[in-house]
Every structure is written in C-alpha cells, then in structure tokens.
Design brief:
The chain has 13 helices and 28 strands. By secondary structure, it is α+β, with helices and mostly antiparallel strands.
C-alpha cells in the first residue's frame, strides 16, 4: 500500500490529501520536535518510523501535518536519474496530554526507504507561534538509503549549571556548528546522552527554594510533597522545557534532525540518584522525580506520561494508586508502551522514580544497531542498574543480533557516564575520610566551607559526581561484569561495540583492548571497544587544572587478566591555537564539543590493513592504523569527509569549540577511525595473572594500575 493510500483515523494515521479546507490558526507554544523511533528492514526494502511533537494551548483543533518526499540528497546516487514519485500525505495529530494550560500533539511518521538517501519535507497547517516568532516552514529531514547505515551526531550536557555566567558562553552556540556540518553532509539521527535540559534552577529560583533553605537535615528530609507543591513543580518543569526547547539554534536542530534521548540527573535535578539512600527516599526527591519523568516522556520521547505522580497527600481511596485530583480537567492518552518495540523496560520500578526504566533498542540503518541504557531511573549510590535490567538488555541483544544473521556489524551502546575513564579513587578516599567530619560539623553549625558541601544531604559536593561514575569504587564490580558481557557478545556475534558517554564536560576517547602481550590484531580483537566521551555541547567546561589532573591520572589499567584500558592521545594541538589545557595534555579537552560518527564505505570491498607502522608497546601508543595520525590532520576530523581506507569501520570526529563566547560556535575537528571486527585466528590464551603484577613498569616509564 502506498503512502497516499493510507486512511485517516482518530489516532493520527496518515491519509491522502483531498484538498485543504479553511481553519483557524494552530497556535504553537513549542515545536516542532522531531524524533526517530525505529526501522523495519528486509533484504531490499525498509520503513523508517518517527514522530513530530508540538505543544499548543488547550482546546486546539486537531492539527494536521503534510509529509512529502523531495527527492535524493545527492542526485548522482539515483539510477539513471529515475526517482520514484510519492504523493504527499496528510497526518492528523494524536493528543497525548491536555490540561488547563497546554496540549501535546504527536504526529506518527512512516516513510519507505529508497535506493538513495532521501530528503523528506513536512509542514503543519495554519502553524503560528504564540509569540509571533518567524515560522521557518517547511521543515525537512533526511533518511538513509535502504542499504545505508545512519550518520550519527552525539551530544550531552545541553544546558547550564546553576551559577554559570551564560552570557559569557553565548548560549547553545555549538548547535550552529552542528547545523553547518548537517548542511554539508546530513545527520540521520542525533543521540542525546543525558542532560538535554538543566532543571537545577528549581531549587534556586523555583518552588523548591524554601525547601532547600531548611537548615535542619531531618526537617528537610521529612518535608511533605503535597499536591500543591507538585503543581508548582509541574509548572516549573513545563516552563523550563518550553524556554529551552524554543532557544535557537537548538530549536532549529530539533525540527530537522531526528532525536533519540536518554536522561541523566540534570533532566531531574543535579545529583539525583547519587545522594545517600535515606535522603533520596525523602518525599520531595520522589515527587520531583515523578514530575520530571512526566515531561521527559512528553518532550523527549513523545509518549503519554503516567496518569499521576507521587504526592504525600494522595487520597486514601485513590483507585489503582492514581490521584484523581491530578486528572481534574486533564486528558492523558492511554497507550501500551510494552507494545512499542523500541523499549526494553526495566524489571521493576526504580527506587526513587517510581517507574520502570526505559532502555532502548533500534536499528540505525543497515549495519548499525543502538542500545540506550537508562542509567538514572534505577540509580542509587551503590548501583547503576538492576541486574535483571542488564539481563533484559542482553536478552534483547541476543535476540536481535541472532535474527540479523551477522548483518549488524556495529553496536552503539549509550551510557550516560564514561566507563573507560581515569580513576579518582584517591580523591574519593579523601572526601570520604574521617578528616572531613569536623569540617562538615563546622559547616552545619557556622556555615564554614559552605562551597565544599551540597545543599541536600550535607556531603562533600563532589561526592555525588564521583559516585556517579562507573569507575567509582562502589560500581567497580558492576562495571567489570558489564564490559565482560559486552566482550562475549562481541565475540559471539562478530559485532564491534562502541560506547557513547557524556556527563564530564570535556572530550576524551577511552579504549578497552586485549593486553598487547596477547598479540591480537585489533581487527580481530573483540575486546577493543572505544568509549567516545563527548561533553558538554552547551555547559561550561571544567577548569584547565581539572583536565590536566585527569590527564596525569591516565594510567594503563588492567580491568581483568586479558583486558587493558587507557585514553587515546587524540588532541594533537589546541583548537584554533587557543589554549585549553596544558601543552602535555593530549587526552582530555576542556572545551565544549559534540561528536560525529559515520560508517566508512568504499568502492573497494576489501578492508584496509589496520596494522600500525610499529607494534604498540602499550595503550599510550596507537593500537592500529586508524589511531595513527589521530587528531586535526586525520581525514575524518571535519565530521564530513570519510577516510575511505577501512571499509566497514567507523569514522569518529570530535568537533571542539575554539572561542568561548563566540556566537557562531566555530570549531576545530579531531578524528580517528574504528575498525570493523572480522573473524581471525583463535584468540590466544592469556598469560596467567601471576605473570603480570598489579603494578608493572612499562618501557615508557608509565605505571600500570590494577583495577
């Protein structure tokens, strides 16, 4: 059935256009926001599924979206110039949610994949912004060819922490560079790694300010979260989303690059999930977790939220636990999220957000698969995710990779925080040591060292950030088990695993790999996994001294008997000649950034040799040819050019801001290539643990640190 033959229904199914009638304006508070949902593929055909979201005042008539294909992105890709003709289609909106202040509308898109990379264009009838700002319609997006993998843009930390001088950082300026690169070679998807919005201001100039000001920790912990406070917080989160998602140039990117998002703490409030358990279980944290989850569902996933969220004054006769007061003059669409194939739902509700985690699986075109791990809903100070949730994720991966019959060559795994990253155990030990106790007492009694302690549980402010990391001692075993399961999956299904992470406000590239003593070529090494650490696209970077400290802690670590890890020396020079870190620091870049990931295609079907010119003595040296020359001179550095040298691999580019406060978001690129995983000789047996000391001097004088 062609697109034009689909019929309209009450839930917003596509319909043929039979002429346009007269109607009043569709006044829009926010949008359009474009999301990617999933892809269905067969041997020579496929369908791309996505959604568009708009937010309107209540009582708006059912809006209509018109979708049409405008042809190939590059006409040279077509066969004999023949382009299939598609009639435009009309898609009516589905109302997800409505109350006395607003309504959320979702348009569900389904477009056929062609033999060429195709551009699609959409308009929304009678569209008008509430504030009369210009409407840059029609909007367009690009889908890959049926034989193509998606081109990926990855970002995180898209907002400002409380207290940042936002004027000196020129707003979300890096999105201008995103749009420039997108105009040269379109992105098919942009992956948000968490903190797409910063809601921390709710405790500074929002409804939680009086609660935060309570000096007695017991009274603060016992404070109720009644329906009135919930309503005030609800208004805050909604208005903050409207403000930020309407800010240019982020607004323009939202309308034309399909999104996939996973949340992190700032989407709720700074440190959520990583404070002490008895404090995280307080009513206020549980309450704002529920409200933040509501708008995370609507704005970032385009799905209906739960019918009500946690409050301390829920009526005792609330049917099914749903607070009837929260449904007064309110409509919430009923839909079964279990039927949506993109979700891998958690096994049980989280401890502080009383909903199941939303982990995601989807194909990113022909040869790339994606898994996003919701590392916030189930997080506590002692765990990132429940064991059962990991089991569900790996069970789904086994199912999908087996069904793909080795067609999937790359697995992109999204983790909110880095997993191949320098250890800061010595700093954890200092912060957690008894010597801090007297200082904490002085802080509580007299306010001494006020900047050192957070306003929530009275712990050292850095501790929640350190405990967030997979490399924290509290998460060591969970981290090791996750990596080892990924290694087994990679080996069994011959799929290269690449990990995306954000959170830390600087750029870096970590790698896991087989110990060089095993003499396994990288193209045959299932343990070789790159951790692309890209953060922040908008927030302020850490001080130069912090980046340099991390660089000095970049030791070679033995994760287990056969697996080593360290950061790559990627940043061969300072961006645009502007000093960001120490001259010695080639591994951490304290400047705003985002990443581009592109599958390497070549007319030569043979993969190039990844053997380095000189065998690496350790991970401080290039492990393969794709890492040699990594940095500004690498062919992939501009985020547009492909190396064309190693067919089937991935090109990665970090786009790094040059000048603070430059509204154009001018950037320097740093590139490298990731090899395809190909089946080689049987993996050599590892050396015994007794043959390798926990701390072993290397030829270059660097100490190898034990896990």
């Amino acid at each position: 059935m062609s697109l034009a033959e689909q019929s309209a229904g009450p839930n917003g199914v596509a319909a043929p256009i039979n002429g346009s009638g007269q109607s009043s304006d569709v006044v829009v508070l926010c949008g359009p926001l474009l999301n990617y949902s999933r892809m269905a593929l067969s041997n020579d055909s496929g369908t791309w599924y996505g959604t568009v979201l708009i937010v309107t005042p209540p009582g708006t008539q059912q809006p209509r979206l018109t979708l049409r294909q405008t042809g190939p992105v590059h006409y040279a890709e077509t066969t004999n110039g023949a382009v299939p003709q598609h009639d435009p289609v009309l898609i009516t909106g589905t109302k997800l949610y409505e109350d006395l202040d607003k309504a959320f509308w979702r348009f569900s898109l389904a477009v056929p994949l062609e033999s060429y990379e195709a551009r699609w264009e959409y308009t929304i009838a009678d569209f008008k912004y509430e504030n009369d700002s210009p409407v840059n319609s029609p909007w367009s997006f690009v889908v890959p060819a049926v034989s193509q993998s998606m081109r990926i843009m990855f970002h995180s930390c898209n907002g400002f922490s409380v207290g940042t001088d936002t004027e000196s950082w020129a707003g979300p300026a890096m999105w201008n560079d995103v749009l420039r690169v997108h105009a040269q070679r379109p992105f098919h998807v942009m992956i948000g790694g968490g903190d797409q919005i910063y809601n921390d201001g709710i405790r500074v100039d929002g409804p939680l300010k009086p609660w935060t000001s309570i000096s007695n920790p017991h009274k603060r912990r016992m404070h109720p979260f009644d329906n009135n406070l919930r309503g005030e917080c609800d208004k805050y989160y909604f208005k903050n989303y409207i403000r930020w998602y309407s800010t240019e140039p982020f607004k323009t990117a939202n309308a034309q690059i399909p999104q996939i998002n996973i949340w992190d703490d700032h989407d709720i409030i700074d440190g959520f999930g990583s404070y002490t358990d008895r404090f995280m279980r307080c009513a206020v944290f549980r309450g704002i977790g529920g409200v933040a989850h509501k708008y995370y569902c609507l704005f970032q996933h385009h799905i209906a939220p739960p019918k009500s969220t946690f409050v301390t004054d829920t009526p005792p006769d609330a049917a099914g636990g749903v607070d009837p007061r929260q449904l007064e003059n309110t409509y919430v669409l009923e839909e079964r999220h279990e039927d949506d194939p993109r979700w891998i739902l958690g096994v049980q509700p989280g401890p502080y957000v009383e909903e199941k985690s939303r982990n995601m699986f989807m194909r990113l075109g022909r040869r790339i698969a994606f898994v996003g791990v919701d590392a916030r809903t189930e997080r506590t100070r002692h765990q990132v995710n429940y064991p059962g949730t990991y089991d569900a994720i790996f069970g789904r991966l086994e199912q999908e990779l087996t069904a793909a019959n080795e067609e999937i060559k790359h697995l992109i795994l999204l983790l909110g925080v880095p997993i191949a990253y320098p250890r800061l155990a010595w700093l954890e030990n200092i912060i957690s040591s008894p010597v801090v106790g007297p200082i904490r007492l002085l802080n509580r009694r007299f306010g001494i060292a006020g900047g050192l302690f957070n306003q929530f549980d009275g712990q050292v402010d850095l501790l929640d950030d350190l405990d967030d990391h997979y490399t924290a001692r509290l998460h060591k075993s969970e981290r090791r088990e996750l990596i080892q399961r990924l290694q087994k999956l990679s080996k069994k299904h011959k799929v290269r695993v690449t990990i995306l992470s954000g959170d830390v406000h600087l750029a870096a590239l970590g790698r896991f790999y087989s110990n060089p003593h095993l003499n396994i070529p990288i193209e045959n090494d299932h343990r070789y996994m790159v951790n692309v650490i890209s953060s922040a696209i908008t927030n302020k970077p850490p001080p130069k001294a912090v980046a340099n400290l991390l660089a000095r802690r970049n030791k070679i670590h033995h994760m287990d008997r056969d697996t080593d890890e360290t950061l790559l020396s990627l940043f061969d020079k300072q961006p645009g000649g502007v000093e960001k870190g120490g001259a010695f620091n080639k591994v951490t870049m304290p400047s705003r950034n985002y990443a581009c990931i592109t599958e390497i295609t070549s007319s030569d079907s043979r993969a190039g040799s990844y053997a380095p010119r000189q065998p690496a003595k350790d991970g401080h040296q290039p492990l393969h040819a794709g890492e040699e020359g990594a940095g500004t001179a690498h062919p992939a550095a501009d985020g547009v050019t492909s190396t064309n040298s190693f067919a089937g691999g991935l090109d990665v580019a970090f786009r790094v801001e040059i000048h603070q406060g430059n509204a154009n978001g001018d950037a320097e690129g740093y590139g490298l290539s990731i090899p395809l995983l190909v089946e080689g000789l049987p993996t050599p047996l590892g050396t015994s643990h007794s043959q390798r000391s926990a701390e072993q001097p290397q030829a270059n004088g660097t100490t190898v640190q034990g896990e």
